[in-house]
Amino acid sequence: MTDSPRPRIVSGAKPETGHYEEFLDHPAHFLYRAWQECGELAEFDLNGVRHVLVASADIQEAIFRAPDEQLSTSAPYQYMVPVFGEGIQYGAPLEIERQQVKFLSNALRPAKMKAYAQAIAEEVEAFIADWGEEGEKEFHDTFKALVLRTSTRCLMGEEFRRTLSDEFGALFHDLEEAISPSAIVDAHSGEAAFTRRDEARARLQTMLMQAVRERRGSKEDALPDMLQTFLEARYADGSALADELIPGMVIWIMFAGFHTSSNTAAWVSLELARHPEYQREVTQEIDEVYGHGEDLSFTALREMPTLESFVGETLRLHPPLCTLMRQVMQPFEYKDYVFDVGTILVISPYVSHRLPDLYPDPEKFDPHRPLPEKVFASIAFGGGKRKCVGNAFAFLQVKAIMTALLSRYELSLVDPPETYREVMPSLILRPSSPCMLRYQSRSTTT
Amino acid sequence: MKVIADLQLCQGHGMCENEAPEVFRVVDSGDGTYSHVEILDPEPGGSLRTQVEAAVRFCPNRALSIEDST
User: Fold this and answer.
1) A372 and A57 in contact (C-beta within 8 Å)?
2) Per residue in A327-378, pLDDT tens?
Protein backbone atom coordinates (compact mmCIF):
# COMPACT_ATOMS: atom_id res chain seq x y z
CA MET A 1 0.00 0.00 0.00
CA THR A 2 2.92 2.28 0.63
CA ASP A 3 3.87 2.33 -3.05
CA SER A 4 0.50 3.67 -4.14
CA PRO A 5 0.53 7.36 -4.99
CA ARG A 6 -0.88 9.80 -2.49
CA PRO A 7 -3.33 12.56 -3.34
CA ARG A 8 -2.05 16.12 -3.27
CA ILE A 9 -2.33 17.76 0.12
CA VAL A 10 -4.28 20.97 0.54
CA SER A 11 -2.10 23.88 1.70
CA GLY A 12 -2.50 25.73 4.95
CA ALA A 13 -2.62 22.87 7.50
CA LYS A 14 -1.91 23.88 11.11
CA PRO A 15 0.23 21.67 13.38
CA GLU A 16 -2.44 19.92 15.47
CA THR A 17 -5.79 20.84 14.03
CA GLY A 18 -4.85 20.55 10.36
CA HIS A 19 -7.42 22.31 8.19
CA TYR A 20 -10.13 22.21 10.83
CA GLU A 21 -10.41 25.97 11.43
CA GLU A 22 -10.77 26.81 7.76
CA PHE A 23 -13.25 23.97 7.30
CA LEU A 24 -15.23 25.21 10.30
CA ASP A 25 -15.44 28.69 8.86
CA HIS A 26 -17.25 27.64 5.66
CA PRO A 27 -17.03 23.94 4.71
CA ALA A 28 -18.22 24.47 1.11
CA HIS A 29 -15.78 27.26 0.39
CA PHE A 30 -12.90 25.35 1.95
CA LEU A 31 -13.70 22.27 -0.14
CA TYR A 32 -13.95 24.35 -3.28
CA ARG A 33 -10.52 25.81 -2.60
CA ALA A 34 -9.20 22.30 -1.97
CA TRP A 35 -10.44 21.17 -5.37
CA GLN A 36 -9.07 24.25 -7.14
CA GLU A 37 -5.67 23.58 -5.64
CA CYS A 38 -5.47 19.79 -5.93
CA GLY A 39 -7.99 18.60 -8.52
CA GLU A 40 -9.84 15.28 -8.48
CA LEU A 41 -8.35 14.08 -5.17
CA ALA A 42 -7.49 16.53 -2.40
CA GLU A 43 -6.20 15.33 0.95
CA PHE A 44 -6.81 17.36 4.08
CA ASP A 45 -6.69 16.88 7.80
CA LEU A 46 -9.37 17.55 10.41
CA ASN A 47 -7.87 17.27 13.88
CA GLY A 48 -5.60 14.41 12.90
CA VAL A 49 -8.09 12.44 10.80
CA ARG A 50 -7.18 12.03 7.14
CA HIS A 51 -9.91 13.16 4.74
CA VAL A 52 -9.83 13.05 0.96
CA LEU A 53 -12.15 15.23 -1.09
CA VAL A 54 -13.03 13.49 -4.34
CA ALA A 55 -14.51 15.27 -7.35
CA SER A 56 -15.22 13.56 -10.66
CA ALA A 57 -18.19 11.63 -12.01
CA ASP A 58 -16.03 8.47 -12.12
CA ILE A 59 -14.90 8.42 -8.52
CA GLN A 60 -18.33 9.52 -7.33
CA GLU A 61 -19.75 6.52 -9.15
CA ALA A 62 -17.11 4.17 -7.71
CA ILE A 63 -17.89 5.36 -4.19
CA PHE A 64 -21.68 5.31 -4.54
CA ARG A 65 -21.50 1.76 -5.93
CA ALA A 66 -19.17 0.44 -3.22
CA PRO A 67 -20.79 -1.78 -0.57
CA ASP A 68 -21.44 -0.44 2.95
CA GLU A 69 -19.03 -3.04 4.32
CA GLN A 70 -16.20 -1.39 2.39
CA LEU A 71 -17.19 2.27 2.60
CA SER A 72 -19.27 2.98 5.68
CA THR A 73 -21.82 5.76 5.88
CA SER A 74 -22.58 4.95 9.48
CA ALA A 75 -19.07 5.50 10.87
CA PRO A 76 -18.61 9.15 9.85
CA TYR A 77 -22.19 10.07 10.75
CA GLN A 78 -22.17 8.87 14.36
CA TYR A 79 -22.82 12.49 15.36
CA MET A 80 -26.40 11.95 14.15
CA VAL A 81 -27.04 9.25 16.78
CA PRO A 82 -27.84 11.70 19.61
CA VAL A 83 -30.20 13.52 17.23
CA PHE A 84 -32.25 10.54 16.01
CA GLY A 85 -31.65 8.32 19.02
CA GLU A 86 -30.03 5.01 19.89
CA GLY A 87 -31.50 2.12 17.91
CA ILE A 88 -32.31 4.40 14.96
CA GLN A 89 -30.41 4.75 11.69
CA TYR A 90 -26.67 4.83 12.42
CA GLY A 91 -27.41 4.06 16.05
CA ALA A 92 -28.57 0.60 14.94
CA PRO A 93 -26.66 -2.30 13.35
CA LEU A 94 -26.30 -2.12 9.55
CA GLU A 95 -28.90 -4.81 8.78
CA ILE A 96 -31.48 -3.07 10.98
CA GLU A 97 -30.66 0.37 9.59
CA ARG A 98 -31.15 -0.86 6.02
CA GLN A 99 -34.61 -2.10 6.92
CA GLN A 100 -35.47 1.17 8.62
CA VAL A 101 -34.55 3.03 5.44
CA LYS A 102 -37.03 0.80 3.68
CA PHE A 103 -39.68 1.87 6.21
CA LEU A 104 -38.96 5.46 5.22
CA SER A 105 -39.16 4.64 1.54
CA ASN A 106 -42.47 2.79 2.09
CA ALA A 107 -43.84 5.98 3.59
CA LEU A 108 -42.94 7.79 0.35
CA ARG A 109 -44.42 5.47 -2.26
CA PRO A 110 -46.16 6.94 -5.33
CA ALA A 111 -49.53 5.60 -4.15
CA LYS A 112 -49.22 7.80 -1.05
CA MET A 113 -48.04 10.87 -2.93
CA LYS A 114 -51.57 11.88 -3.88
CA ALA A 115 -52.61 12.19 -0.28
CA TYR A 116 -49.45 14.16 0.52
CA ALA A 117 -49.95 16.42 -2.49
CA GLN A 118 -53.44 17.20 -1.25
CA ALA A 119 -52.21 17.94 2.27
CA ILE A 120 -49.32 20.11 1.04
CA ALA A 121 -51.59 22.05 -1.33
CA GLU A 122 -54.05 22.84 1.45
CA GLU A 123 -51.30 24.01 3.75
CA VAL A 124 -49.67 26.20 1.10
CA GLU A 125 -52.95 27.84 0.09
CA ALA A 126 -53.84 28.55 3.70
CA PHE A 127 -50.36 29.87 4.39
CA ILE A 128 -50.40 32.52 1.67
CA ALA A 129 -54.13 33.31 1.92
CA ASP A 130 -53.57 36.52 3.87
CA TRP A 131 -50.49 37.81 2.06
CA GLY A 132 -52.49 40.49 0.30
CA GLU A 133 -51.65 42.33 -2.91
CA GLU A 134 -48.00 42.91 -2.21
CA GLY A 135 -45.39 42.94 0.50
CA GLU A 136 -41.90 41.99 1.58
CA LYS A 137 -40.91 38.90 3.49
CA GLU A 138 -37.88 37.15 4.84
CA PHE A 139 -38.06 34.07 2.63
CA HIS A 140 -35.75 31.78 4.58
CA ASP A 141 -37.85 31.97 7.76
CA THR A 142 -41.10 32.05 5.81
CA PHE A 143 -40.38 28.74 4.13
CA LYS A 144 -39.16 27.20 7.35
CA ALA A 145 -42.53 27.98 8.90
CA LEU A 146 -44.36 26.65 5.84
CA VAL A 147 -42.37 23.43 5.44
CA LEU A 148 -42.72 22.73 9.13
CA ARG A 149 -46.49 22.76 8.57
CA THR A 150 -46.49 20.68 5.39
CA SER A 151 -44.01 18.14 6.78
CA THR A 152 -45.77 17.61 10.09
CA ARG A 153 -49.08 17.30 8.28
CA CYS A 154 -47.77 14.58 5.91
CA LEU A 155 -45.89 12.87 8.69
CA MET A 156 -48.16 13.01 11.68
CA GLY A 157 -51.58 13.74 10.21
CA GLU A 158 -54.08 16.53 10.44
CA GLU A 159 -54.76 16.36 14.14
CA PHE A 160 -51.14 16.64 15.20
CA ARG A 161 -50.66 19.43 12.69
CA ARG A 162 -53.62 21.36 14.14
CA THR A 163 -52.08 21.34 17.57
CA LEU A 164 -48.64 22.25 16.23
CA SER A 165 -47.03 24.72 18.58
CA ASP A 166 -44.07 27.03 18.21
CA GLU A 167 -42.32 24.71 20.61
CA PHE A 168 -42.12 21.91 18.04
CA GLY A 169 -40.27 24.13 15.55
CA ALA A 170 -38.01 25.47 18.28
CA LEU A 171 -37.06 21.93 19.32
CA PHE A 172 -36.10 21.07 15.75
CA HIS A 173 -34.09 24.25 15.64
CA ASP A 174 -32.14 23.06 18.69
CA LEU A 175 -31.45 19.75 16.94
CA GLU A 176 -30.28 21.53 13.81
CA GLU A 177 -27.93 23.80 15.76
CA ALA A 178 -26.07 20.71 16.98
CA ILE A 179 -25.28 19.52 13.43
CA SER A 180 -22.13 21.55 13.15
CA PRO A 181 -18.57 20.87 12.03
CA SER A 182 -17.59 20.58 15.69
CA ALA A 183 -20.06 17.69 16.07
CA ILE A 184 -18.01 15.79 13.48
CA VAL A 185 -15.07 15.98 15.86
CA ASP A 186 -16.88 15.24 19.12
CA ALA A 187 -20.66 15.24 19.32
CA HIS A 188 -20.55 14.61 23.07
CA SER A 189 -18.32 17.45 24.20
CA GLY A 190 -19.76 19.79 26.82
CA GLU A 191 -20.72 22.36 24.17
CA ALA A 192 -23.91 24.23 25.07
CA ALA A 193 -25.46 23.40 21.69
CA PHE A 194 -25.12 19.68 22.45
CA THR A 195 -26.79 20.04 25.84
CA ARG A 196 -29.68 21.88 24.19
CA ARG A 197 -29.84 19.12 21.56
CA ASP A 198 -30.17 16.41 24.22
CA GLU A 199 -32.88 18.33 26.05
CA ALA A 200 -34.78 18.96 22.81
CA ARG A 201 -34.50 15.30 21.82
CA ALA A 202 -35.89 14.17 25.20
CA ARG A 203 -38.80 16.60 24.95
CA LEU A 204 -39.60 15.48 21.38
CA GLN A 205 -39.60 11.86 22.56
CA THR A 206 -42.29 12.74 25.09
CA MET A 207 -44.41 14.72 22.61
CA LEU A 208 -44.20 12.14 19.86
CA MET A 209 -44.75 9.15 22.15
CA GLN A 210 -48.00 10.73 23.20
CA ALA A 211 -49.03 10.95 19.55
CA VAL A 212 -48.05 7.30 19.03
CA ARG A 213 -50.12 6.19 22.03
CA GLU A 214 -53.10 8.23 20.89
CA ARG A 215 -52.91 6.73 17.42
CA ARG A 216 -52.59 3.20 18.80
CA GLY A 217 -55.73 3.80 20.84
CA SER A 218 -57.64 5.38 17.97
CA LYS A 219 -60.66 3.56 16.64
CA GLU A 220 -60.63 5.43 13.35
CA ASP A 221 -59.56 3.84 10.09
CA ALA A 222 -55.88 3.85 9.21
CA LEU A 223 -54.78 7.34 8.25
CA PRO A 224 -52.75 8.13 5.12
CA ASP A 225 -49.76 9.64 6.89
CA MET A 226 -46.22 8.49 7.53
CA LEU A 227 -46.82 7.78 11.22
CA GLN A 228 -49.30 5.10 10.20
CA THR A 229 -46.67 3.48 7.95
CA PHE A 230 -44.27 3.30 10.90
CA LEU A 231 -46.95 1.84 13.16
CA GLU A 232 -47.51 -0.92 10.64
CA ALA A 233 -43.85 -1.49 9.73
CA ARG A 234 -42.42 -5.00 10.07
CA TYR A 235 -38.82 -6.15 9.91
CA ALA A 236 -37.97 -9.14 7.71
CA ASP A 237 -38.30 -11.47 10.73
CA GLY A 238 -41.86 -10.28 11.25
CA SER A 239 -41.18 -8.17 14.32
CA ALA A 240 -42.65 -4.69 14.61
CA LEU A 241 -40.80 -1.44 15.03
CA ALA A 242 -40.89 -0.81 18.79
CA ASP A 243 -43.17 2.09 19.71
CA GLU A 244 -40.33 3.79 21.58
CA LEU A 245 -38.35 3.96 18.34
CA ILE A 246 -41.13 5.59 16.33
CA PRO A 247 -40.36 9.11 17.58
CA GLY A 248 -36.82 8.60 16.31
CA MET A 249 -38.10 7.54 12.89
CA VAL A 250 -40.30 10.64 12.77
CA ILE A 251 -37.42 12.91 13.75
CA TRP A 252 -35.19 11.24 11.17
CA ILE A 253 -37.56 11.64 8.22
CA MET A 254 -38.60 15.11 9.40
CA PHE A 255 -35.00 16.18 9.75
CA ALA A 256 -34.08 14.85 6.34
CA GLY A 257 -36.82 16.85 4.68
CA PHE A 258 -37.22 19.98 6.73
CA HIS A 259 -34.25 22.30 6.30
CA THR A 260 -33.27 20.79 2.98
CA SER A 261 -36.68 21.53 1.42
CA SER A 262 -37.23 24.88 3.09
CA ASN A 263 -33.77 26.06 2.04
CA THR A 264 -34.34 24.85 -1.49
CA ALA A 265 -37.64 26.73 -1.69
CA ALA A 266 -35.81 29.84 -0.45
CA TRP A 267 -33.01 29.44 -3.01
CA VAL A 268 -35.52 28.82 -5.81
CA SER A 269 -37.36 32.02 -4.89
CA LEU A 270 -34.13 33.94 -4.71
CA GLU A 271 -32.98 32.71 -8.12
CA LEU A 272 -36.41 33.51 -9.61
CA ALA A 273 -36.10 37.04 -8.24
CA ARG A 274 -32.57 37.33 -9.62
CA HIS A 275 -33.61 36.18 -13.09
CA PRO A 276 -36.88 37.82 -14.19
CA GLU A 277 -36.57 36.33 -17.70
CA TYR A 278 -36.55 32.78 -16.32
CA GLN A 279 -39.26 33.64 -13.84
CA ARG A 280 -41.48 34.55 -16.80
CA GLU A 281 -40.85 31.14 -18.39
CA VAL A 282 -41.64 29.28 -15.18
CA THR A 283 -44.77 31.36 -14.60
CA GLN A 284 -45.92 30.77 -18.15
CA GLU A 285 -45.69 27.02 -17.67
CA ILE A 286 -47.60 27.27 -14.40
CA ASP A 287 -50.34 29.24 -16.13
CA GLU A 288 -50.55 26.56 -18.79
CA VAL A 289 -50.99 23.63 -16.43
CA TYR A 290 -52.61 25.23 -13.39
CA GLY A 291 -55.75 27.23 -13.07
CA HIS A 292 -57.98 25.42 -15.55
CA GLY A 293 -60.11 23.93 -12.87
CA GLU A 294 -57.57 21.44 -11.56
CA ASP A 295 -56.56 21.85 -7.99
CA LEU A 296 -53.04 22.51 -6.81
CA SER A 297 -52.38 18.96 -5.67
CA PHE A 298 -53.13 17.64 -9.14
CA THR A 299 -50.84 20.21 -10.72
CA ALA A 300 -47.98 19.51 -8.32
CA LEU A 301 -48.03 15.86 -9.34
CA ARG A 302 -47.85 16.71 -13.02
CA GLU A 303 -44.80 16.94 -15.13
CA MET A 304 -43.58 20.54 -15.22
CA PRO A 305 -40.29 20.44 -17.11
CA THR A 306 -39.53 24.17 -16.90
CA LEU A 307 -40.11 24.41 -13.17
CA GLU A 308 -38.35 21.09 -12.55
CA SER A 309 -35.28 22.18 -14.51
CA PHE A 310 -35.28 25.44 -12.61
CA VAL A 311 -35.34 23.59 -9.29
CA GLY A 312 -32.66 21.22 -10.61
CA GLU A 313 -30.36 24.09 -11.54
CA THR A 314 -30.98 25.65 -8.12
CA LEU A 315 -30.00 22.37 -6.46
CA ARG A 316 -26.89 22.22 -8.63
CA LEU A 317 -25.53 25.56 -7.43
CA HIS A 318 -27.03 25.46 -3.95
CA PRO A 319 -27.11 21.84 -2.79
CA PRO A 320 -28.34 21.93 0.82
CA LEU A 321 -25.90 19.24 1.91
CA CYS A 322 -22.32 20.04 0.94
CA THR A 323 -20.45 17.12 2.43
CA LEU A 324 -21.32 13.46 1.93
CA MET A 325 -18.89 11.28 3.83
CA ARG A 326 -17.80 7.64 3.74
CA GLN A 327 -15.26 5.99 6.00
CA VAL A 328 -12.96 3.38 4.47
CA MET A 329 -13.48 0.03 6.28
CA GLN A 330 -11.67 -2.18 3.73
CA PRO A 331 -8.94 -0.74 1.47
CA PHE A 332 -10.58 1.09 -1.42
CA GLU A 333 -8.88 1.29 -4.81
CA TYR A 334 -9.39 3.91 -7.44
CA LYS A 335 -7.06 4.17 -10.45
CA ASP A 336 -3.57 3.68 -8.91
CA TYR A 337 -4.66 4.95 -5.53
CA VAL A 338 -5.39 2.82 -2.52
CA PHE A 339 -7.23 4.48 0.34
CA ASP A 340 -6.35 3.01 3.71
CA VAL A 341 -8.78 1.90 6.39
CA GLY A 342 -9.83 4.89 8.48
CA THR A 343 -9.57 7.47 5.73
CA ILE A 344 -12.71 9.54 5.25
CA LEU A 345 -13.75 10.12 1.66
CA VAL A 346 -15.69 13.31 1.13
CA ILE A 347 -18.00 13.90 -1.81
CA SER A 348 -19.14 17.48 -2.03
CA PRO A 349 -22.14 18.20 -4.26
CA TYR A 350 -21.15 21.87 -3.97
CA VAL A 351 -17.78 21.16 -5.58
CA SER A 352 -18.86 18.36 -7.93
CA HIS A 353 -21.63 20.50 -9.39
CA ARG A 354 -19.03 23.08 -10.37
CA LEU A 355 -16.74 20.82 -12.39
CA PRO A 356 -16.27 22.68 -15.68
CA ASP A 357 -15.99 19.52 -17.81
CA LEU A 358 -19.48 18.51 -16.70
CA TYR A 359 -20.95 21.98 -16.27
CA PRO A 360 -19.37 24.53 -18.62
CA ASP A 361 -19.26 28.04 -17.14
CA PRO A 362 -20.27 26.50 -13.81
CA GLU A 363 -21.10 29.64 -11.82
CA LYS A 364 -23.66 30.72 -14.38
CA PHE A 365 -27.25 30.00 -13.34
CA ASP A 366 -28.76 28.44 -16.44
CA PRO A 367 -31.96 26.38 -16.09
CA HIS A 368 -31.62 25.32 -19.74
CA ARG A 369 -28.35 23.58 -19.05
CA PRO A 370 -28.56 19.94 -20.18
CA LEU A 371 -28.23 17.30 -17.46
CA PRO A 372 -24.86 15.53 -17.83
CA GLU A 373 -25.05 12.07 -19.39
CA LYS A 374 -23.29 10.56 -16.41
CA VAL A 375 -25.81 9.66 -13.72
CA PHE A 376 -23.30 10.21 -10.93
CA ALA A 377 -22.45 13.77 -12.00
CA SER A 378 -25.59 15.22 -10.47
CA ILE A 379 -25.66 14.37 -6.80
CA ALA A 380 -27.76 16.84 -4.80
CA PHE A 381 -29.53 13.80 -3.31
CA GLY A 382 -26.43 11.60 -3.20
CA GLY A 383 -26.38 8.46 -5.33
CA GLY A 384 -26.61 4.69 -5.44
CA LYS A 385 -28.30 2.61 -2.78
CA ARG A 386 -27.96 5.38 -0.24
CA LYS A 387 -29.45 8.11 -2.32
CA CYS A 388 -32.03 10.22 -0.48
CA VAL A 389 -35.30 8.27 -0.72
CA GLY A 390 -37.28 11.47 -0.30
CA ASN A 391 -36.22 13.09 -3.54
CA ALA A 392 -39.57 12.71 -5.30
CA PHE A 393 -41.36 14.00 -2.21
CA ALA A 394 -38.99 16.98 -2.06
CA PHE A 395 -39.77 17.89 -5.66
CA LEU A 396 -43.50 17.52 -5.02
CA GLN A 397 -43.26 19.84 -2.05
CA VAL A 398 -41.20 22.52 -3.76
CA LYS A 399 -43.36 22.37 -6.90
CA ALA A 400 -46.55 22.82 -4.90
CA ILE A 401 -45.10 25.79 -3.02
CA MET A 402 -43.75 27.53 -6.11
CA THR A 403 -46.89 26.88 -8.17
CA ALA A 404 -49.13 28.41 -5.52
CA LEU A 405 -46.79 31.36 -5.09
CA LEU A 406 -46.11 32.15 -8.74
CA SER A 407 -49.69 31.74 -9.85
CA ARG A 408 -50.44 34.74 -7.65
CA TYR A 409 -47.25 36.73 -7.29
CA GLU A 410 -44.20 38.04 -9.05
CA LEU A 411 -41.03 37.92 -6.98
CA SER A 412 -38.24 40.49 -6.97
CA LEU A 413 -35.17 41.39 -4.95
CA VAL A 414 -35.41 43.95 -2.15
CA ASP A 415 -31.69 44.43 -1.50
CA PRO A 416 -28.73 44.88 -3.86
CA PRO A 417 -28.00 41.50 -5.59
CA GLU A 418 -24.50 41.12 -4.12
CA THR A 419 -25.84 41.22 -0.55
CA TYR A 420 -27.53 37.82 -0.95
CA ARG A 421 -24.73 35.44 0.00
CA GLU A 422 -24.45 31.73 0.75
CA VAL A 423 -23.69 30.94 4.37
CA MET A 424 -23.20 27.77 6.40
CA PRO A 425 -23.93 28.34 10.06
CA SER A 426 -24.51 24.58 10.32
CA LEU A 427 -23.62 21.92 7.76
CA ILE A 428 -26.47 23.12 5.55
CA LEU A 429 -25.88 25.73 2.85
CA ARG A 430 -28.45 28.51 3.11
CA PRO A 431 -28.99 32.08 1.91
CA SER A 432 -27.71 34.78 4.25
CA SER A 433 -30.17 36.49 6.57
CA PRO A 434 -32.22 38.44 6.04
CA CYS A 435 -33.22 37.00 2.67
CA MET A 436 -35.74 39.71 1.85
CA LEU A 437 -37.87 39.35 -1.27
CA ARG A 438 -40.76 41.43 -2.56
CA TYR A 439 -43.92 39.78 -3.81
CA GLN A 440 -46.43 41.63 -5.87
CA SER A 441 -49.78 40.41 -7.11
CA ARG A 442 -49.56 39.54 -10.81
CA SER A 443 -52.96 41.06 -11.46
CA THR A 444 -51.47 44.45 -10.60
CA THR A 445 -48.21 43.97 -12.53
CA THR A 446 -49.61 42.79 -15.85
CA MET B 1 -36.59 -1.44 -27.73
CA LYS B 2 -34.80 -3.09 -24.86
CA VAL B 3 -35.37 -2.02 -21.26
CA ILE B 4 -32.46 -2.15 -18.83
CA ALA B 5 -32.46 -1.66 -15.05
CA ASP B 6 -29.38 -0.89 -12.98
CA LEU B 7 -30.22 -2.65 -9.74
CA GLN B 8 -27.36 -0.96 -7.91
CA LEU B 9 -29.30 2.28 -8.32
CA CYS B 10 -32.83 0.99 -7.76
CA GLN B 11 -34.48 1.74 -4.42
CA GLY B 12 -37.87 0.35 -5.33
CA HIS B 13 -39.72 3.67 -5.43
CA GLY B 14 -42.19 2.15 -7.87
CA MET B 15 -42.62 5.11 -10.21
CA CYS B 16 -41.99 2.77 -13.16
CA GLU B 17 -44.64 0.31 -12.02
CA ASN B 18 -46.98 3.23 -11.71
CA GLU B 19 -46.32 4.31 -15.30
CA ALA B 20 -46.01 0.99 -17.09
CA PRO B 21 -47.31 -1.93 -15.00
CA GLU B 22 -47.09 -4.19 -18.07
CA VAL B 23 -43.31 -3.83 -18.07
CA PHE B 24 -42.23 -3.17 -14.49
CA ARG B 25 -43.08 -4.67 -11.14
CA VAL B 26 -41.60 -3.86 -7.75
CA VAL B 27 -40.73 -7.02 -5.87
CA ASP B 28 -39.64 -7.68 -2.33
CA SER B 29 -35.94 -8.23 -1.90
CA GLY B 30 -36.63 -10.95 0.65
CA ASP B 31 -34.07 -9.69 3.17
CA GLY B 32 -36.00 -6.73 4.52
CA THR B 33 -34.01 -4.17 2.56
CA TYR B 34 -35.29 -2.14 -0.38
CA SER B 35 -37.69 -3.68 -2.79
CA HIS B 36 -36.43 -3.52 -6.34
CA VAL B 37 -37.71 -3.52 -9.85
CA GLU B 38 -38.29 -6.66 -11.85
CA ILE B 39 -38.59 -6.26 -15.58
CA LEU B 40 -41.54 -8.33 -16.69
CA ASP B 41 -41.06 -7.62 -20.35
CA PRO B 42 -37.48 -6.72 -21.32
CA GLU B 43 -38.41 -6.08 -24.95
CA PRO B 44 -41.83 -4.45 -24.91
CA GLY B 45 -43.64 -3.63 -28.12
CA GLY B 46 -43.71 -0.15 -29.60
CA SER B 47 -47.25 0.45 -28.37
CA LEU B 48 -45.84 0.72 -24.84
CA ARG B 49 -43.13 3.19 -25.82
CA THR B 50 -44.77 6.29 -24.29
CA GLN B 51 -45.36 4.58 -20.95
CA VAL B 52 -41.86 3.10 -20.82
CA GLU B 53 -40.29 6.46 -21.65
CA ALA B 54 -42.32 8.04 -18.85
CA ALA B 55 -41.12 5.32 -16.47
CA VAL B 56 -37.51 6.02 -17.41
CA ARG B 57 -38.01 9.75 -16.97
CA PHE B 58 -39.83 9.51 -13.65
CA CYS B 59 -37.36 7.13 -12.01
CA PRO B 60 -35.99 9.24 -9.14
CA ASN B 61 -32.72 7.32 -9.32
CA ARG B 62 -32.22 7.22 -13.08
CA ALA B 63 -31.92 3.45 -12.77
CA LEU B 64 -33.72 2.66 -16.03
CA SER B 65 -32.69 3.05 -19.62
CA ILE B 66 -33.91 2.13 -23.07
CA GLU B 67 -31.60 0.63 -25.65
CA ASP B 68 -32.71 0.73 -29.26
CA SER B 69 -31.20 -1.81 -31.61
CA THR B 70 -30.88 -0.38 -35.09
Assistant:
1) yes
2) 999 999 999 999 999 999 999 999 999 999 999 999 999 999 999 999 999 9
Pairwise CB contact (< 8 Å): A387 & B15? no
What DSSP character marks residue A409?
E
Residues of B in contact with A383 (CB under 8 A): 9
Contact A391 B32 (CB under 8 A): no
Quote the CA–CA distance of A61 and A65 in Å, as a whole number. Answer: 6
- B33-70 tens-digit pLDDT: 888 999 999 999 999 999 999 999 889 888 999 998 76
Q: Nearest 5°: phi and psi at A180?
A: -125, 165
Asked if B14 has any chain A CB less than 8 Å from its own CB, the reply is: yes
- Among 3.30.70.20, 1.10.10.10, 3.10.129.10, 3.10.290.10, name the CATH number for the domain at B2-63: 3.30.70.20
* CB-closest option in B9, B32, B57 to A235: B32
CB contact under 8 A, A389 and B11: yes
